[in-house]
Specification:
With about 350 residues, the protein is of the alpha/beta class. About 35% of the residues lie in helices and about 25% in strands. The strands form two sheets. It has a seven-stranded mixed β-sheet with strand order 9-8-10-11-7-12-13, sandwiched between helices. A six-stranded antiparallel β-sheet has the order 3-2-1-6-5-4. Helix 12 (about 315-325) runs antiparallel to helix 13 and helix 12 (about 315-325) packs across helix 14 (about 340-350).
Length: about 350
Protein backbone atom coordinates (compact mmCIF):
# COMPACT_ATOMS: atom_id res chain seq x y z
CA UNK A 1 0.00 0.00 0.00
CA UNK A 2 1.14 3.56 -0.61
CA UNK A 3 1.01 6.12 2.19
CA UNK A 4 -2.43 7.46 1.22
CA UNK A 5 -3.88 3.95 1.27
CA UNK A 6 -2.36 3.26 4.68
CA UNK A 7 -3.78 6.49 6.10
CA UNK A 8 -7.19 5.77 4.55
CA UNK A 9 -7.18 2.30 6.13
CA UNK A 10 -6.44 3.94 9.49
CA UNK A 11 -9.50 6.17 9.05
CA UNK A 12 -11.72 3.31 7.82
CA UNK A 13 -10.77 1.03 10.72
CA UNK A 14 -11.32 3.87 13.23
CA UNK A 15 -7.78 3.31 14.44
CA UNK A 16 -6.14 5.85 16.73
CA UNK A 17 -2.60 5.35 15.39
CA UNK A 18 -0.59 4.10 12.43
CA UNK A 19 3.03 2.94 12.88
CA UNK A 20 5.57 2.59 10.10
CA UNK A 21 8.72 1.04 11.58
CA UNK A 22 11.51 -0.52 9.51
CA UNK A 23 11.74 -4.28 10.03
CA UNK A 24 8.05 -4.77 10.86
CA UNK A 25 4.81 -4.61 8.84
CA UNK A 26 2.70 -1.43 9.03
CA UNK A 27 0.58 -1.54 12.21
CA UNK A 28 -2.55 0.22 13.45
CA UNK A 29 -3.86 0.67 17.00
CA UNK A 30 -7.57 -0.02 17.49
CA UNK A 31 -9.14 0.41 20.95
CA UNK A 32 -5.67 0.48 22.46
CA UNK A 33 -4.43 -2.75 20.79
CA UNK A 34 -1.81 -2.89 18.01
CA UNK A 35 -2.49 -5.02 14.93
CA UNK A 36 -0.25 -5.68 11.91
CA UNK A 37 -2.00 -4.76 8.67
CA UNK A 38 -2.95 -7.98 6.91
CA UNK A 39 -1.17 -8.68 3.63
CA UNK A 40 1.52 -6.05 4.14
CA UNK A 41 5.14 -7.18 4.27
CA UNK A 42 7.99 -5.99 6.44
CA UNK A 43 8.86 -2.35 5.80
CA UNK A 44 12.28 -1.56 4.33
CA UNK A 45 14.20 1.70 4.89
CA UNK A 46 13.62 2.64 1.26
CA UNK A 47 9.84 2.22 1.52
CA UNK A 48 9.56 4.31 4.72
CA UNK A 49 11.76 7.04 3.21
CA UNK A 50 9.54 7.06 0.12
CA UNK A 51 6.43 7.43 2.29
CA UNK A 52 8.02 10.39 4.11
CA UNK A 53 9.01 12.11 0.87
CA UNK A 54 5.35 12.03 -0.18
CA UNK A 55 4.11 13.90 2.90
CA UNK A 56 7.00 16.11 4.14
CA UNK A 57 8.26 19.32 2.60
CA UNK A 58 11.90 19.75 1.69
CA UNK A 59 12.34 21.95 4.78
CA UNK A 60 10.79 19.29 7.02
CA UNK A 61 12.95 16.56 5.49
CA UNK A 62 15.98 18.73 6.20
CA UNK A 63 14.97 19.17 9.83
CA UNK A 64 14.43 15.43 10.18
CA UNK A 65 17.89 14.78 8.77
CA UNK A 66 19.52 17.27 11.17
CA UNK A 67 17.45 16.74 14.32
CA UNK A 68 16.72 13.00 13.85
CA UNK A 69 13.04 13.61 14.71
CA UNK A 70 10.26 15.99 13.77
CA UNK A 71 6.67 16.66 14.85
CA UNK A 72 4.24 17.64 12.11
CA UNK A 73 0.54 17.68 11.22
CA UNK A 74 -1.05 16.38 8.05
CA UNK A 75 -4.44 17.29 6.60
CA UNK A 76 -5.53 14.06 4.96
CA UNK A 77 -9.18 14.10 3.90
CA UNK A 78 -12.62 15.47 4.64
CA UNK A 79 -12.79 13.14 7.64
CA UNK A 80 -9.44 13.32 9.40
CA UNK A 81 -6.14 15.01 10.06
CA UNK A 82 -3.07 13.37 11.53
CA UNK A 83 -0.57 14.45 14.15
CA UNK A 84 2.70 12.68 13.44
CA UNK A 85 6.24 12.20 14.65
CA UNK A 86 8.95 11.02 12.26
CA UNK A 87 12.00 9.75 14.09
CA UNK A 88 15.20 7.77 13.66
CA UNK A 89 15.71 4.35 15.21
CA UNK A 90 18.81 2.26 14.62
CA UNK A 91 19.80 4.74 11.96
CA UNK A 92 16.60 4.34 9.94
CA UNK A 93 13.51 6.54 9.60
CA UNK A 94 10.20 5.55 11.19
CA UNK A 95 6.96 7.45 11.74
CA UNK A 96 3.97 7.32 14.09
CA UNK A 97 0.66 8.91 13.05
CA UNK A 98 -2.14 9.86 15.48
CA UNK A 99 -5.55 10.35 13.85
CA UNK A 100 -7.35 13.59 14.73
CA UNK A 101 -11.05 13.80 13.71
CA UNK A 102 -12.01 16.99 11.89
CA UNK A 103 -15.14 17.36 14.02
CA UNK A 104 -14.33 18.78 17.45
CA UNK A 105 -15.91 16.51 20.11
CA UNK A 106 -18.49 17.50 22.72
CA UNK A 107 -17.82 16.98 26.44
CA UNK A 108 -20.99 14.96 27.12
CA UNK A 109 -20.54 12.68 24.10
CA UNK A 110 -17.05 11.74 25.31
CA UNK A 111 -18.46 10.35 28.54
CA UNK A 112 -16.63 12.98 30.59
CA UNK A 113 -17.94 14.38 33.90
CA UNK A 114 -20.27 17.35 33.87
CA UNK A 115 -17.92 19.31 36.12
CA UNK A 116 -15.80 20.00 33.03
CA UNK A 117 -18.56 22.36 31.85
CA UNK A 118 -17.81 24.57 34.86
CA UNK A 119 -14.17 24.89 33.76
CA UNK A 120 -15.33 26.66 30.59
CA UNK A 121 -16.88 29.49 32.63
CA UNK A 122 -13.75 30.38 34.60
CA UNK A 123 -12.16 33.77 33.96
CA UNK A 124 -8.65 32.99 35.20
CA UNK A 125 -6.51 30.27 36.71
CA UNK A 126 -4.69 27.11 35.64
CA UNK A 127 -6.33 23.80 34.73
CA UNK A 128 -4.13 20.78 34.04
CA UNK A 129 -5.29 17.72 32.09
CA UNK A 130 -2.94 14.79 32.71
CA UNK A 131 -2.48 11.15 31.84
CA UNK A 132 -0.42 8.83 29.62
CA UNK A 133 0.10 9.41 25.92
CA UNK A 134 -2.89 8.38 23.83
CA UNK A 135 -5.46 8.54 26.61
CA UNK A 136 -7.56 11.50 25.50
CA UNK A 137 -5.91 14.60 26.94
CA UNK A 138 -5.90 16.56 23.67
CA UNK A 139 -9.45 15.46 22.80
CA UNK A 140 -10.71 16.52 26.24
CA UNK A 141 -9.07 19.93 25.97
CA UNK A 142 -10.45 20.39 22.46
CA UNK A 143 -13.98 19.73 23.75
CA UNK A 144 -13.48 22.28 26.56
CA UNK A 145 -12.04 24.93 24.22
CA UNK A 146 -14.84 24.46 21.69
CA UNK A 147 -17.47 24.92 24.40
CA UNK A 148 -15.77 28.20 25.30
CA UNK A 149 -15.73 29.03 21.59
CA UNK A 150 -19.49 28.35 21.41
CA UNK A 151 -20.52 30.34 24.48
CA UNK A 152 -18.05 33.17 25.09
CA UNK A 153 -16.81 36.14 23.05
CA UNK A 154 -13.16 35.81 24.02
CA UNK A 155 -9.73 35.54 22.38
CA UNK A 156 -8.33 32.01 22.63
CA UNK A 157 -4.66 31.40 21.80
CA UNK A 158 -3.44 27.83 21.39
CA UNK A 159 0.26 26.89 21.25
CA UNK A 160 0.69 23.36 19.94
CA UNK A 161 3.32 21.01 18.57
CA UNK A 162 1.77 20.34 16.12
CA UNK A 163 -1.76 21.79 15.80
CA UNK A 164 -4.28 19.00 16.32
CA UNK A 165 -7.99 19.93 16.23
CA UNK A 166 -8.86 22.87 13.98
CA UNK A 167 -11.31 25.26 15.65
CA UNK A 168 -13.76 27.22 13.54
CA UNK A 169 -14.54 30.60 15.14
CA UNK A 170 -18.03 30.84 16.65
CA UNK A 171 -18.37 33.46 19.38
CA UNK A 172 -14.65 33.44 20.12
CA UNK A 173 -11.61 34.52 18.14
CA UNK A 174 -9.23 31.55 17.87
CA UNK A 175 -5.50 32.02 17.17
CA UNK A 176 -3.74 28.66 16.72
CA UNK A 177 0.06 28.72 16.70
CA UNK A 178 2.18 25.74 15.68
CA UNK A 179 5.71 25.18 16.90
CA UNK A 180 8.36 25.79 14.19
CA UNK A 181 5.82 27.02 11.61
CA UNK A 182 4.42 29.93 13.65
CA UNK A 183 6.90 30.32 16.52
CA UNK A 184 10.38 29.15 17.43
CA UNK A 185 9.86 28.12 21.07
CA UNK A 186 7.22 27.54 23.74
CA UNK A 187 8.67 30.17 26.05
CA UNK A 188 8.80 32.82 23.28
CA UNK A 189 5.23 32.05 22.23
CA UNK A 190 3.98 32.31 25.81
CA UNK A 191 5.77 35.61 26.40
CA UNK A 192 4.29 36.94 23.17
CA UNK A 193 0.82 35.71 24.17
CA UNK A 194 0.69 38.29 26.93
CA UNK A 195 0.94 41.00 24.24
CA UNK A 196 -1.76 39.44 22.05
CA UNK A 197 -4.74 40.31 24.27
CA UNK A 198 -5.67 36.73 25.21
CA UNK A 199 -8.47 35.64 27.51
CA UNK A 200 -7.77 31.90 27.28
CA UNK A 201 -4.45 30.19 26.51
CA UNK A 202 -4.07 26.52 25.65
CA UNK A 203 -0.57 25.04 25.97
CA UNK A 204 -0.26 21.73 24.13
CA UNK A 205 2.21 20.36 26.66
CA UNK A 206 4.15 21.77 29.63
CA UNK A 207 7.47 20.13 28.77
CA UNK A 208 10.19 21.92 30.70
CA UNK A 209 11.15 24.59 33.22
CA UNK A 210 10.69 27.52 30.83
CA UNK A 211 7.26 26.39 29.63
CA UNK A 212 5.98 25.68 33.14
CA UNK A 213 7.31 28.97 34.51
CA UNK A 214 5.72 30.88 31.62
CA UNK A 215 2.39 29.06 32.06
CA UNK A 216 2.29 30.01 35.75
CA UNK A 217 3.02 33.64 34.87
CA UNK A 218 0.25 33.75 32.25
CA UNK A 219 -2.23 32.30 34.76
CA UNK A 220 -1.01 34.65 37.47
CA UNK A 221 -1.61 37.70 35.28
CA UNK A 222 -5.35 37.05 35.11
CA UNK A 223 -5.78 34.64 32.21
CA UNK A 224 -7.39 31.21 31.97
CA UNK A 225 -4.74 28.65 31.07
CA UNK A 226 -5.21 25.02 30.05
CA UNK A 227 -2.25 22.66 29.68
CA UNK A 228 -1.32 18.98 29.67
CA UNK A 229 1.26 16.93 31.54
CA UNK A 230 2.24 13.27 31.27
CA UNK A 231 1.56 12.40 34.90
CA UNK A 232 -0.66 9.75 36.46
CA UNK A 233 -2.36 11.56 39.35
CA UNK A 234 -3.00 14.97 40.86
CA UNK A 235 -0.38 14.50 43.58
CA UNK A 236 2.23 13.42 41.03
CA UNK A 237 1.31 16.42 38.87
CA UNK A 238 1.98 18.88 41.70
CA UNK A 239 5.32 17.22 42.42
CA UNK A 240 6.29 17.34 38.73
CA UNK A 241 5.54 21.06 38.43
CA UNK A 242 7.45 21.93 41.59
CA UNK A 243 10.41 19.60 41.01
CA UNK A 244 11.24 21.11 37.61
CA UNK A 245 12.39 24.29 39.41
CA UNK A 246 15.71 24.75 41.24
CA UNK A 247 15.46 23.97 44.94
CA UNK A 248 15.87 27.59 46.00
CA UNK A 249 12.79 28.56 43.94
CA UNK A 250 10.48 25.75 44.99
CA UNK A 251 8.87 27.45 47.99
CA UNK A 252 7.93 30.42 45.79
CA UNK A 253 6.57 28.08 43.10
CA UNK A 254 4.43 26.21 45.64
CA UNK A 255 2.91 29.53 46.70
CA UNK A 256 2.43 30.61 43.08
CA UNK A 257 0.85 27.28 42.10
CA UNK A 258 -1.48 27.26 45.12
CA UNK A 259 -2.72 30.71 44.09
CA UNK A 260 -3.43 29.98 40.40
CA UNK A 261 -4.35 26.28 40.22
CA UNK A 262 -8.07 25.59 39.74
CA UNK A 263 -8.14 21.86 38.97
CA UNK A 264 -6.23 18.78 37.87
CA UNK A 265 -8.14 16.31 35.70
CA UNK A 266 -6.21 13.04 35.31
CA UNK A 267 -7.61 10.49 32.89
CA UNK A 268 -7.24 7.05 31.29
CA UNK A 269 -9.13 5.37 28.46
CA UNK A 270 -10.02 1.81 29.54
CA UNK A 271 -10.69 -0.94 26.94
CA UNK A 272 -14.36 -1.94 27.15
CA UNK A 273 -15.87 -5.41 27.21
CA UNK A 274 -18.00 -4.62 24.16
CA UNK A 275 -15.22 -2.84 22.25
CA UNK A 276 -14.15 0.78 22.31
CA UNK A 277 -12.84 2.53 25.40
CA UNK A 278 -14.40 4.32 28.38
CA UNK A 279 -12.81 7.20 30.31
CA UNK A 280 -11.82 6.72 33.94
CA UNK A 281 -10.56 9.79 35.75
CA UNK A 282 -9.47 11.55 38.90
CA UNK A 283 -10.75 15.06 39.67
CA UNK A 284 -8.88 17.36 42.04
CA UNK A 285 -10.32 20.81 42.71
CA UNK A 286 -8.25 23.55 44.33
CA UNK A 287 -10.15 23.83 47.59
CA UNK A 288 -8.65 25.52 50.64
CA UNK A 289 -7.37 22.16 51.89
CA UNK A 290 -5.70 21.38 48.56
CA UNK A 291 -4.15 24.85 48.31
CA UNK A 292 -2.75 24.50 51.82
CA UNK A 293 -1.27 21.08 51.03
CA UNK A 294 0.41 22.50 47.90
CA UNK A 295 1.72 25.59 49.66
CA UNK A 296 3.14 23.58 52.57
CA UNK A 297 4.62 20.86 50.35
CA UNK A 298 2.36 18.14 51.78
CA UNK A 299 1.41 16.49 48.51
CA UNK A 300 1.17 13.12 50.31
CA UNK A 301 -2.10 14.44 51.78
CA UNK A 302 -3.72 15.12 48.40
CA UNK A 303 -4.99 11.56 47.78
CA UNK A 304 -6.82 11.45 51.11
CA UNK A 305 -8.26 14.96 50.59
CA UNK A 306 -9.66 13.87 47.21
CA UNK A 307 -11.10 10.69 48.72
CA UNK A 308 -12.96 12.62 51.44
CA UNK A 309 -14.16 15.50 49.24
CA UNK A 310 -16.62 13.79 46.92
CA UNK A 311 -19.39 16.15 47.98
CA UNK A 312 -17.61 19.11 46.31
CA UNK A 313 -16.97 17.21 43.08
CA UNK A 314 -13.64 15.49 43.68
CA UNK A 315 -13.25 11.84 42.67
CA UNK A 316 -10.33 9.44 42.74
CA UNK A 317 -9.46 7.10 39.89
CA UNK A 318 -10.55 4.00 41.79
CA UNK A 319 -14.07 5.36 42.27
CA UNK A 320 -14.58 5.84 38.53
CA UNK A 321 -12.92 2.51 37.68
CA UNK A 322 -15.19 0.73 40.18
CA UNK A 323 -18.23 2.38 38.61
CA UNK A 324 -17.22 1.08 35.17
CA UNK A 325 -16.80 -2.44 36.60
CA UNK A 326 -20.13 -2.36 38.45
CA UNK A 327 -21.88 -1.10 35.30
CA UNK A 328 -20.49 -4.06 33.34
CA UNK A 329 -18.52 -1.84 30.97
CA UNK A 330 -14.99 -3.06 31.76
CA UNK A 331 -13.61 -6.19 33.38
CA UNK A 332 -12.21 -6.18 36.90
CA UNK A 333 -8.92 -7.49 35.53
CA UNK A 334 -8.67 -4.58 33.10
CA UNK A 335 -9.62 -2.05 35.78
CA UNK A 336 -6.96 -3.43 38.13
CA UNK A 337 -4.31 -3.07 35.44
CA UNK A 338 -5.01 0.69 35.28
CA UNK A 339 -5.54 1.27 39.01
CA UNK A 340 -3.05 3.21 41.12
CA UNK A 341 -4.41 1.64 44.33
CA UNK A 342 -5.66 -1.90 43.53
CA UNK A 343 -6.72 -2.64 47.12
CA UNK A 344 -8.91 0.47 47.16
CA UNK A 345 -10.46 -0.57 43.84
CA UNK A 346 -11.27 -4.06 45.16
CA UNK A 347 -12.87 -2.49 48.24
CA UNK A 348 -14.99 -0.22 46.04
CA UNK A 349 -16.27 -3.19 43.99
CA UNK A 350 -17.24 -5.39 46.93
CA UNK A 351 -20.69 -7.05 46.48
CA UNK A 352 -22.25 -4.88 49.17
CA UNK A 353 -21.36 -1.82 47.09
CA UNK A 354 -23.02 -3.07 43.90
Amino acid sequence: MNINELLQLTVDRKASDLHLVVGTPPSIRVDGVLYSISGEGVLTPEVVDEHLKKILSAEQLGRLSVNKEIDFSLHFSEKARFRANAYTQRGKSSVAFRMIPLEVPVIDKLGLPKILHSFTNLRQGLILVTGPTGHGKSTTLAAIIDEINTNRAVHVITIEDPIEFIFRPKQAIISQREMHNDTHSWATALRSALREDPDVVLIGEMRDYETIASALTVAETGHLVFATLHTNSAAQTIDRVVDVFPEDQQDQVKLQLSNVLEAVFSMRLIPAIAGGRFPAYEIMLATTAIKTAIREGKTHQIDSIIQTSQEVGMLNLEYTLARLVRDGKVTMEMALSYSLRPEELQRQVKPDKI
